[in-house]
Amino acid sequence: MTIMEPPATREARGWPQLLRADPLPWLLEPSTPAVRQAALRDLLDRLADDPEVAEARRAAMAADPIAAILAAQQRDGYWEKPGAGYATKYRGTVWQLIFLDQLGADPADERVQRACDYVLGHSIAATGGFGASGRLDRPPPPSAVLHCLNGNLLRAVIGFGRLDDERVQGAIEWQARAITGEGVERWYASGTSGPSFACAANEGLPCGWGAAKAMLGLARIPEGRRSPLVARAIDTGVTFLLSRDPAVADYPKGWGNTRPNRSWFKLGFPSAYVTDILQVLEALVELGHGADPRLARARAWLLAMQDDRGRWWNQYAYNGKTWVDFERQGEPGKWVTLRALRVLRALAVNDGGR
Fold first, then answer.
1. Measured distance CA(211)–CA(124) in Å, rounded
2. Tally of CB atoms within 10 A around 185
3. Of 176, 191, 212, nearest in space to 289 by CA
4. Are the CB atoms for 326 and 268 separated by under 8 Å?
5. SS3 219
6. 77 CB neighbour count, 10 Å cutoff
């Protein structure tokens, strides 16, 4: 019997030719099992029940950084202190759930699900969205709900299997209405201050960082499960992200700033509320817009960032701010390289493998 190669694999065979060297053996090293698991699945099309993937997943749960994060979890499911979980950066509860998702933690692990339960029980405002609050005694107020945090947490809880939870559906509803402006009577100057990604932290102007996070959150919803409202919100977000050249990242800037924030151009891992150019590409690729010609310069920029060994360096690693360092800042980063290769592979598929 002939084993047919998956169509996506056939189309993507040419993407390694874009690299200066092959970093895949480096990514597959057993010493970093979380990266190995992701590379097997995302770059080699291995299924979740593949023996090598399953082995890497088990090893990842027992190794840092996942093991260190879970070891710091309190019995009730929170980190550092009870409550809404935004404080402190980046050791509070909501950040750990975001990071565990980005690290590919096993959704079947009881500690991961306990963290989902805690965040869903303590971090949602009355309006339905996730709020940025460090309060211990009450849920976040509606004025604390932000596109960036809501998008990050939506992506995490959906990835951990909670799409059908009514609280997650409420956060999706908030995200979509906050983007389109439909059916919202009041905006809060201290948080998301208006539709189309307007944010108080950006002087009420649309925020490119928030847009990227929101789109990555909504992208996790299977296409067949997206309501018309969510579809309109995604269309609005894609239009906004493509309204500027992502390689330039000159999205609206408040408070008298005339140049894009330098963080746009620093590739990093993990990802909190700051966004880089690669994350805009990740969002647009996941939403099916990888073939848009307006991404050509961003792809060229990304390719130029690799070193002579086909690796990308971690320039924004949050060292010393998290429970454990994920990678060394200013050095080649497996996670950043994996992020880049996922996007380049998808762009090659969208480009017919050329």
1. 20
2. 4
3. 212
4. no
5. helix
6. 23
Amino acid type, 51: P
Question: CB under 8 Å to 286, separation ≥6 — which residues?
Answer: 215, 216, 219
Measure CA 50 to chain center. Answer: 25
- pLDDT tens profile 60-89: 999 999 999 999 999 999 999 999 999 999
Query: 285-329 pLDDT, tens per residue?
Result: 999 999 999 999 999 999 999 999 999 999 999 999 999 999 999
Fill in the DSSP letter of residue 43. Answer: T
**Residue 122 class from Cβ within 10 Å (0-12 exposed, 13-18 middle, 19+ buried)?**
buried
Q: How far apart are CA 275 and CA 81, in angstroms?
A: 27
Q: How far apart are CA 187 and CA 335, in angstroms?
A: 37
| Cβ–Cβ < 8 Å for 10, 351 | no
Amino acid identity, residue 295? L
Query: Do residues 205 and 254 touch, judged by C-beta distance below 8 A?
Result: yes
Euclidean distance between CA atoms 313 and 306, whole angstroms: 8
